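ugh ok fine here u go
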Amino acid sequence: MTSRLELSALDRAKVVGHLEAGYPDEACGILLGRAHAAGAVVDEVILVANAREESRHNRYVIPPSEVLAAQKRARALGGDIVGYFHSHPDHPAQPSEFDREHAWPGSSYLIVAVRQGQAEDVRSWRLSDDRERFFEETVLEKGVSSWP
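structure:
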């Protein structure tokens, strides 16, 4: 299955800066935009504080109130929540089993590997409809055919 996630260079920088600032803990946020047959286009990113109280170095929680507020914002923009983003401090930008167990099919999951406080890999994933595995999406700069 081929899918792509498109976001502006400014939004990508905003995501990366937020995730680097959260190091050594996982940091997180929400992607607002428009879904289409080939993936999603991000129109806005919402930076969220990790509300998890323990194991913050390898887990994150986005409070339901933040998701509800993001949903309202997305609808006001004529879109929806198209995905979520989080960091993997000192680990690869690949979904964990925990990520798979808590993911929803149809949403994009942008994961950034942050090593020693610096982002080194940005990848996006979608969960299969049977919830068995993730497949990688292509991350593109909005309006450009490929990321520089």
